[in-house]
Design brief:
By secondary structure, this protein is mainly β. The chain contains 3 helices and 55 strands. The chain has 4 domains: 83 residues, no CATH class; 90 residues, Immunoglobulins (Immunoglobulin-like), CATH 2.60.40; 85 residues, Immunoglobulin-like (Sandwich), CATH 2.60.40; 231 residues, no CATH class. Helices cover 5% and strands 40% of the residues. Strands 34, 35, 36, 39, 41, 43, 45, 47 and 52 form a 9-stranded parallel β-sheet that branches. Strands 28-27-33-32-29-30-31 form a 7-stranded mixed β-sheet, with no helix packed on it. The chain has a 5-stranded antiparallel β-sheet with strand order 13-14-15-20-21, with no helix packed on it. The N and C termini lie far apart (143 Å).
């Protein structure tokens, strides 16, 4: 822009000069210009000047053009070599210089440039001050910690400090006391378990071992040195022996244990845990099958074995009801157990104290019979007219050689009931009004050598009350039965009876040559609602009275005579005061051979009627018909040879077991394949 302005002004100057010259010359006189060869310079232009004196004419006037101005020199016109314009302070001949970082003790600078032209002082240099030491890097040894410079590693000697615990940290094994520099000053290993310990009051019970003692393993060390641990015990259920580090159970309950120790000055620890002492509470897997409520004994006496000399209480639980039992350790009895009258009582009996509790699954009976003396609890007496309950045999009983009431081999009227019917005028009434009303379960066992004699029978009198409350005789055999009656008939079970169920019973006789009287299961002449099922009566030989015409002799059967209730029922009372009720026979077998003369023994008889098994005299198709019998086979017939004959339905007579096996090999739980009934339940 500046150059343009100068050029315009020059042109204007030339034009004016020329005009003036022209006017002057014209006025003066015209002349020829003579131009100088050298350039004239003025301001920003150059030209050739007229050499004529006084002439100011210019030729070829032009602006300077040439090199650029620098920081130390103006521009030079390439035409006239004249300097022109101004110096350019920004046009340097630059030289680059590298940067130098300052150190902790020396200055530094960044990269900079300077002008190389002489006389130019242009520079971008900027100084950076020395950094000084940066004591920010921490170092330590076993005893001290200090800082050093992060740049030059110079140690701050004045800041060296001994280690001390500033913080505590939990570790896997205990805790660590750390210095502010991170150095571990204290290493505490704390093995002091706080888990509760469970012990038991006994070391073993019923073949199982229990944790009665427990080792308590503990240790506290500080920098490898053991520290003392003290224990405080609250409670008396267990003790602690520090010498052996052992807890021992004393009784059921618990103790609280506090373990205390010191790690460092001002740093202590207390840890608390419990030792819980429990008593074993077990249920014996093997059940007690036979527990006798009357005498409070289990047949094996195993219930007392586990308890040794320990004192304990006993409780029976049946059907949700608890019964406290009286414990007699000397005699090993638990009196007071509940027993259902006619049902085995499935219950539990628990023997317990502070040390343990043992529960048995027990089947309770009124009485478990293990020997002949146990029958005493079934005896009818003047003070015990009714015997109820469930009586079960747990062993075979042999009365051979047994002394009862001062006499051996005697189990008769002096035993059931305990008075002589001949010397007691009220005996009949007493027997009539009394009786056994329970369950007698032989459990597959045998009663051997019972002497019926002149007795009222094994039970004396039986007193069932209804079809729903029948007296039961079952699962028993009477073998080698003696009669020996010398005045009337022998009774196996009872003189008087009502509402009786007899099931799974086997009876065999020891026939004596003098046995000439009748024998019956029951002395009553009427069947007052009886139930018979699976009965075997065996007589290995005929006896003298078999088949006689005497109504008082010669019969072996169920009742004392052939009452009409054997085959039908009526509600009319007979002269003995017994009502004729329903009696049901199932699987009733007589194994009785014929007499040597071929006589068939009836099951019941009197002077006008005779009852045979259903398979005897099958030619009689009409029950109760008056028939002419063969006197040689049936001497009980009247002189005319005629009498009423009956067949006992579901009852069968055979001469022997081989003959019987043609019909059956098993009667209820009696297997006869061996030639005699054998219990197989």
């Amino acid at each position: 822009m500046k150059r343009k302005l100068l050029l315009v002004l020059s042109l204007v100057f030339v034009m004016i000069t020329t005009l003036v010259c022209a006017v002057g010359c014209k006025k003066a006189e015209a002349h020829k210009h003579t131009w100088a060869t050298e350039w004239s310079v003025g301001g920003e232009t150059h030209w050739h000047a007229c050499t004529v004196e006084g002439c100011t004419a210019k030729k070829d006037e032009a602006d300077h053009t040439g090199t650029a101005a620098t920081c130390t020199a103006k521009a030079v016109c390439a035409v006239c070599n004249a300097e022109y314009g101004k110096k350019d302070p920004d046009n340097h001949d630059l030289e680059e210089h590298a940067a130098k970082a300052p150190t902790c003790t020396e200055i530094g600078w960044g990269a900079y440039v300077t002008c190389k032209r002489g006389g130019c002082t242009y520079t971008t240099y900027q100084e950076k001050a020395a950094l000084g030491h940066d004591y920010t890097v921490q170092e330590k040894d076993d005893n001290q910690h200090w800082n050093k410079c992060s740049r030059c590693n110079k140690v701050d000697e004045a800041g060296k400090t001994n280690h001390s615990v500033a913080t505590w940290e939990t570790t896997d094994t205990g805790r660590a006391g750390k210095c502010s520099c991170g150095a571990i000053v204290i290493t505490a290993v704390e093995n002091v378990p706080v888990e509760d310990i469970t012990l038991y009051t006994v070391e073993s019970l019923n073949g199982r071992d229990y944790a009665h003692t427990a080792k308590y393993e503990y240790a506290v060390t500080v920098n490898g040195t053991a520290k003392e641990v003290t224990f405080t015990i609250n409670g008396d259920a267990a003790t602690f022996d520090k010498a052996t580090n052992t807890f021992t159970a004393v009784k059921a309950g618990e103790i609280t244990v506090t373990a205390s120790y010191t790690i460092a000055d001002g740093v202590s620890e207390s840890k608390t845990f419990k030792v819980i002492v429990e008593r074993p509470e077990i249920t014996v897997e093997t059940p007690v099958k036979y527990f006798s409520a009357i005498d409070g004994k289990d047949s094996s006496a195993d219930m007392f074995v586990l308890l040794g000399d320990a004192e304990f209480t006993a409780t029976q639980v049946y059907n949700g009801q608890s019964y406290t039992l009286t414990v007699d350790k000397e005699n090993k009895t638990l009196k007071g157990a509940h027993a259902e009258s006619k049902t085995p009582t499935i219950s539990t009996i628990t023997l317990e104290n502070d040390m343990f509790a043992v529960t048995y699954n027990v089947t309770v009976y009124t009485k478990v019979i293990n020997d002949y003396t146990d029958f005493e609890d079934m005896r009818l007496t003047a003070d015990r007219k009714t015997v109820e309950g469930y009586f079960i045999m747990n062993a075979d009983i042999d009365f051979k050689g047994v002394e009862i009431n001062g006499a051996k081999d005697n189990y008769n009227a002096t035993f059931y009931p305990r008075f002589d019917v001949n010397s007691k005028p009220d005996a009949q009434d007493y027997i009539t009004g009394a009786g056994f009303n329970g369950v007698f379960d032989g459990n597959g066992h045998d009663i051997k050598g019972y002497q019926a004699g002149n007795s009222f029978g094994f039970f004396g009198s039986i007193k069932g009350t209804s079809l729903k409350d029948m007296t039961v005789i079952k699962n028993v055999s009477f073998t080698n039965v003696y009669s020996g009656a010398n005045w009337t008939l022998s009774r196996l079970f009872a003189q008087n009876a009502a509402f009786v169920s007899v099931e799974n019973v086997y009876i065999s006789f020891n026939l004596q040559s003098e046995w000439t009287a009748r024998f019956a299961l029951f002395g009553c002449g009427e069947a007052n609602t009886f139930r018979f099922n699976n009965i075997v009566m065996e007589m290995t030989k005929a006896f003298a009275g078999q088949g006689t015409t005497d109504a008082g002799n010669g019969g072996v059967g169920i009742f004392k005579d052939a009452g009409t209730t054997l085959w039908f029922a009526t509600d009319t009372a007979n002269n003995s005061g017994h009502y004729k009720g329903f009696t049901i026979y199932k699987n009733f077998y007589f194994v009785v051979p014929n007499a040597s003369n071929g006589r068939v023994m009836p099951m019941f008889q009197n002077s006008s009627a005779s009852v045979y098994a259903s398979n005897d005299f099958v030619e009689f198709t009409t029950e109760g018909a008056t028939a002419t019998l063969n006197p040689s086979l049936n001497p009980e017939a009247s002189e005319s040879g005629t009498m009423k004959v009956y067949h006992l339905i579901n009852a069968y007579r055979y001469d022997n077991y081989e003959q019987m096996k043609e019909k059956t090999t098993k009667v209820g739980n009696w297997d006869i394949t061996s030639g005699a009934p054998v219990w197989v339940a």
